[in-house]
Amino acid sequence: MRYPKNMNEEGTKGKKPKHTFLSRFQTLFSNMTRKPVFKRTLAIFFVILALYALFNTFFQSYDSSAFDSATFPFNAASASSILLATGKSTVPAVKVYLYDLPRRFTYGVIHHHSLARGSRVDENDLSSLKYPGHQHMAEWYLFSDLARPDTERAGSPVVRVLDPDEADLFFVPFFSSLSLIVNPVRPPGSGSEKTAYVDEENQEALVEWLKRQKYWQRSKGRDHVIVASDPNAMYRVIDRVKNSVLLVSDFGRLRPDQGSLVKDVIVPYSHRIKTYTGDVGIDKRDTLLFFMGNRYRKEGGKIRDTLFQILETENDVIIKHGAQSRESRRAASQGMHTSKFCLHPAGDTPSACRLFDAIVSLCVPVIVSDSIELPFEDTIDYRKIAVFVETAPAIEPGYLVSILRGITPDRILEYQNELKEVKRYFEYDEPDGTVNEIWRQVSKKLPLIKLMVNREKRLFAKEADCSCICTNQTAIITL
């Protein structure tokens, strides 16, 4: 059967088709794709294009302020206050309100400390009330930092606000660690047992004062920052302030539900010896290993006595018993500045000030403390600046010194160079040192704080249990 001719076919029979640009391109593309080389090239091109798109989607940084707040209906001002770790972001700093506490919690503590040591300073003359030097001075440095004019705080990760309604966080400047040592230790029967200052009373009074503040009530203290760097600081009331961001030296005296790496911040001890100002090198460091400190400690620190017994006979090791005193600090400075390695065994708790003394001395720390938590570990890789030795083999005779003698001079120099790079993080007096780094760590807690505060608002008439988020999963296990 013959089909009727298409009128268009009949009308165009014998004529050459008119080539357009599109038809020529399609013909060219069809011919080229028959070639294997072109197919492979085209496939590679599309793979590269896909990878480029993926990189831009997930890894390319952007300024969150570019988004239209109408598109994303959340509190943009609040979200933008979260500090970026670089410190160079255009995102505004976290806003901190410094509580104006009654004087008994701040300069009153300094005054009582002076009175207990025979001083007769005028408590109304703040310039005469000098905070005394000791190993837990973070509370003073953070308070002093916020009290400075804004012009002197350039580059800080946080900004002080005078209106509490504008604040992201609330700093409670109670000198808890100094309060703990106001009364000098005196032998029983000396006739000085009764004192005018009682730390426990001040702790209780502080909590009562906080409970009356509407901002504490609003968040149950979650957006409040409290310094408790001495392991025994705030021990009487810790359960009543455990929601807050606690600045601690370790978790040795805290239960897992009281302290956590998630909600709290590990802060360095204040080093008590002079910073080494020389360059790296081992020519003037003749001693292999140095330690000077209390030989007899409780709990995990019991290993100190064992270490004394196995190390005190080694020829190139100096290990001495010594208490806190000006003379002891001079001897420790000399010893650390002339030693290649400095021993850091656990004390009554997993941490001690000698680790930070060693760091600023460019003396490579040898850490024998299995449960230790270290400050700023998101920034510092401690494996590059310290030698870690597990407790069990460390107390075997000869084991520790054999490891240290096997470390080459070049490797020691590598350790020292790394120590020199990071030691500013352990200098409280450094303009961009410990204080700024502590504030950066505190600022990073803000998203969790907001999460917990908002979560509690929608729970029904019961206390929120945040153990699934806040519990310290690295709970201390003592010997």
From TrEMBL:
It is found in: Golgi apparatus membrane. InterPro entries: Exostosin, Exostosin_GT47. The keyword Transit peptide does not apply. Coiled coil: none annotated. Belongs to the glycosyltransferase 47 family. GO terms for cellular component: Golgi membrane. This is Exostosin GT47 domain-containing protein. It is a single-pass type II membrane protein. The keyword Transmembrane applies. The chain crosses the membrane at residues 42-59. Residues 93-399 form the Exostosin GT47 domain. Keywords: Glycosyltransferase, Golgi apparatus, Membrane, Signal-anchor, Transferase, Transmembrane, Transmembrane helix. One of its GO terms (molecular function) is glycosyltransferase activity. It comes from Vicia faba (Broad bean).
